[in-house]
Amino acid sequence: MAAPTADRQALGSKSANNPLRVKGRDLPFPLNIYQTAVGKKWVMAVTGLMLVGFVIAHMLGNMKLYLGVVEHNGEMIYDADIYAEFLRELLVPLAPHGVVLWLLRLGLLAAFGLHIHSAYSLTRMNASSNRTYESKRDWLAANFASRTMRYTGTIVLAYLIFHLADLTWGWIPNTEWEHGAVQSNVVNSLSNPAIALIYIVANIMVAVHLYHGVYSMFQSLGINNPQYNGLRRGIATGLAVVILLGNVSFPIAVLFNIIDFDPALLGPAG
Amino acid sequence: MSRRLNLTLKVWRQEGPAANGHFEVYKANEIPDDASFLEMLDIVNEGLIAEGHTPIEFPHDCREGICGTCGVMINGRAHGQEKGTATCQLHMRKFNDGDTIVIEPWRAAAFPIVRDLVVDRSPLDKIVEAGGYISAPTGTAPDANEIPIPKEVADSAMDAAACIGCAACVAACPNSAAQLFTSAKIWHLNSLPQGQAERYRRTEAMVETMEEFFGSCTNHGECSEACPKEISQDFIAYMNRDYIKSKVVNRRLAGQR
Ligand code: HEM
Ligand code: FES
């Protein structure tokens, strides 16, 4: 390693002997894991995996939008609306109405919070550790996705808030919205091309984020076996593509009236 | 017959750690194409000295790719464009007549510039001091093959031990992370029977020392591309695995009596 002979006196405060940062007092286990960067990457990977699980489940649930109207307890009703009610009824009567859904939401909220906090604090750490080159540098392995994680992530967060305001809270002006009426809310919102475009672009960002995120997750969690490492890129790409196609299909299907809402189809069966 | 090259160099000049640096342009004429990159700098320096200028300070020692002293950014790549090659092993025949070559020192907040192209890499020594060793009773050398080691394990340890500590991984990383270096030093010992007694103490101490000086890995993979020994990022995954285990194991050991 042979450090070149440096005149320590001349180096003064710029001495390489002074750490950039010193780890504070250890918090009790397991919180101390989160005090270190490698530990934060573990948390980022685990919470990322939870979010991926959510995104997949969410996409599969949305597939109900394609099923249109079905008979349910003697009534014709949109399948997507039944699904929304099913989520509120999870584990009823073991748990009261809506409670399990709220527990899932709290878990998701915690995962989002930790994912964003670890991303933020590691990004700060990296910025303070790095000195940029004065000349142009080449990228040999880094790709667009890996270099834009913090931006695609931030766009996803902004989209998430917009998406909740749009379909969960009904805050978007001039868009008709009714609590629990999933199919009509989705169709009312996404038939506006501007809103559909937001959904399409945002879901491309989700896919770009996952293209690197899922691959990176394997490394962060130490899931590595040279014999199978080739699969990791494939899994990440495959997952990103499946989620992209699935999620982007909804706004497009609404624009082309493949998913639609027709109140005339509702009412008593038969 | 060897070709002769006429080149333009853009070299980072900086008088000391606190001084402001800048690029200086030099002509490097009549460079034999079988000179090494460092010999090319030697020739330029002889010219500078003859004209009464201060020569360009650059790091070098063995000049055969084993000591890890050399290393500069050459046209935006650590150790230049050749894969698996240290700066001292890069030859001028890889360049063309008339080329402009930009030469910059390694850059990381933890590596102050000593002068020109020379940076202080002693934070890497700090990481090794924290646990990159084994404690063993000294005495006569043990007999060969006294400790049986599976071939695959020996190979993996040897691949990790190939690290020469040049810091190209840190230089190439946009986060200035030292994960490739640290994981190679850790895995070299953690994979072998001799390294087991201190395995988890070593991992925890080396990782946490690393984090005092360097950034955090985002798995771009620039490090392995830059590495003159082509060390694999697989070791980084092994280190991540052992680090989490170390938090559990060391906690249990601390409570033992
Ligand atoms: C909400 C805003 C978000 C922000 C600001 C954000 C930011 C980041 C950043 C900076 C990284 C580190 C990338 C790297 O190591 O190069 C990351 C990793 C990751 N993200 Fe996100 N992200 C967000 C949302 C999401 C969502 C919605 C998902 C899942 C659908 C997700 C899944 C992942 C995964 C799987 C990783 C890999 C973890 C690892 O590197 O070990 N993220 N995120
Ligand atoms: S001078 Fe020793 S490795 Fe290049």
Structural overview:
The complex is a heterodimer of chains A (270) and B (257). The N and C termini of chain A lie far apart (83 Å). Helices cover 59% and strands 4% of the residues of chain A. Chain A has 270 residues and is mainly α. In chain A, strands 1-2-3 form a 3-stranded antiparallel beta sheet. In chain A, a hairpin with a 2-residue loop joins strand 1 and strand 2 (75-78). Chain A has helices at residues 8-11, 37-62, 79-88, 99-129, 144-147, 149-168, 182-190, 193-220, 229-255, and strands at residues 69-72, 75-78, 267-268. Chain B has 257 residues and is α+β, with helices and mostly antiparallel strands. Chain B folds into 2 domains: 4-115, Beta-grasp domain (Ubiquitin-like (UB roll), Roll), CATH 3.10.20.30; 121-135 and 146-256, Alpha-helical ferredoxin (Fumarate Reductase Iron-sulfur Protein, Chain B, domain 2, Orthogonal Bundle), CATH 1.10.1060. Helices cover 35% and strands 14% of the residues of chain B. Chain B has 8 helices and 7 strands; from the N terminus they run E-E-H-E-E-E-E-E-H-H-H-H-H-H-H. A 5-stranded mixed beta sheet of chain B has the order 2-1-5-3-4. Chain B has a two-stranded antiparallel ribbon with strand order 6-7. The longest helix of chain B is centred in the C-terminal third of the chain and has 21 residues, at 234-254. Chain B is elongated and about 70 Å long. The N and C termini of chain B lie far apart (74 Å). The model of chain B has no long low-confidence stretch (mean pLDDT 96). At the A-B interface, helix 2, helix 4 and helix 8 of A face strand 7, helix 2, helix 6, helix 7 and helix 8 of B. The site of FE2/S2 (inorganic) cluster (FES) has 14 residues of chain B, from loops.
